[in-house]
Amino acid sequence: MTAAEAMAAPTGYDSVIDVRSPSEFAEDRLPGAVNWPVLDDAERAEVGTIYTQVSTFEARKRGAAIVSRNIARHIDEHVAGLDRDWRPLVYCWRGGQRSGSFAIVLAQIGFRVRQLQGGYKAYRAVVRNELETLPGRYDWRVIGGRTGSGKTRLLAALAAEGAQVLDLEALAAHRGSVLGDLPGQTQPSQKEFDSRVWHALHGFDPARPVFVERESRRIGRLQLPDAVLEAWQQRSRAIQVELGLSERVALLTEEYAFFTRDVAALNERLQALTELRGKATVTRWQSLAESGDWPTLVAELMQQHYDPLYDRATRAFTETASVETVMLNDAQPGTLAHAARQLVG
């Protein structure tokens, strides 16, 4: 089973089993895969040390003993209760000994197991190659608007109306600004982000438009695929969302309320703006945060920092794309649902 074949029919298996170590799995994996490692991180390091310092033969002996014990444990914990119709796809880094060992045991039991040829490495090559072409298949509706305009909420309303939506900030676990880290969440690796974008794109119908929020090249520490940005320029219509300043202040104050409980963390983030906005301005913003004057702080951040950045960054894009303006009186669910219905229609 090649990576291309597996990606063309991902629902043809009851389970996708990644037998790599937990750290390899954590960096990236096939969509929907579960991790049943035949060597954990410490065991893999041990076998690798024997391989480089002693001999291939001794490393394989030691590895075989560890792998056999781990496979037996996975059979007891995960497989014992399954019937013979269970169809797993098994893979490792290159589709070699680790996945081969597990696949042999499952096949000998009587399961219809398939091993992914080339392993994760081949899957990663498919993702990289297809990310260069997939974005160009779709007609994009690129939603822009100043910070706090309700763009992300509008995307959710569009999805609720049945529209095709690519929520890049959700995939990146970041809101795309210096204050964009989400509490309790860490960003995925670049490889996992690529996989998430690739998987989402595969689920879209090219005959229908895809709505997306306009982002800069980077979302936090992650970079958007170049082909996505190129497709926005070549195959897109721009949707500009307009919302009044007071409503934007209210929305951002609500969405970033967690900073009111951790002013020290907020002020640490604001410190990163010193080079752009000057020490005096940042010190004032930090004082507003410490005093709890959130409306003034949010309004000044937008008017003095975010709005000028946004206006400069979007000028070239809106000059080359067809622009439709959506005027919102507020960012309440009913208002956003109405706007979404108009855009879908």
Task: Give an overview in words.
This protein is α/β, with parallel strands linked by helices and 345 residues long. The protein has two domains: 3-130, Oxidized Rhodanese, domain 1; 135-344, 3-Layer(aba) Sandwich (Rossmann fold). It is built from 16 helices and eleven strands. It has helices at residues 3-8, 22-27, 41-53, 56-79, 97-109, 119-131, 151-160, 168-172, 190-202, 226-234, 245-255, 263-271, 274-277, 279-291, 294-320, 333-344, and strands at residues 15-18, 34-35, 88-91, 114-115, 140-144, 164-166, 210-213, 218-219, 222-223, 236-243, 322-328. The strands form three sheets. It has a five-stranded parallel sheet, with helices on both faces. Helix 6 (119-131) crosses helix 9 (190-202), helix 7 (151-160) crosses helix 16 (333-344) and helix 14 crosses helix 15 (294-320). The longest helix is centred in the C-terminal third of the chain and has 27 residues, at 294-320. The protein is elongated, with a radius of gyration of 25 Å. The relative contact order is 0.11.
> What is the beta-strand fraction?
5-15%
Identify the CATH class of the largest domain: Alpha Beta
Low-pLDDT residue intervals, each spanning 5 or more residues = none
For this structure, the CATH topology of the largest domain is Rossmann fold
SS-based class: alpha/beta
Give the C-alpha Rg.
25 Å
The second-level CATH architecture of the largest domain is 3-Layer(aba) Sandwich
Number of domains: 2
Strand order of the largest sheet: 6-7-5-10-11
Distance between the termini: 42 Å
Task: State the shape.
Answer: elongated
Bin the helical content.
40-55%
Secondary-structure element sequence? HEHEHHEHEHEHEHHEEEHEHHHHHEH
Rounded mean pLDDT is 91
Major β-sheet profile = 5 strands, parallel
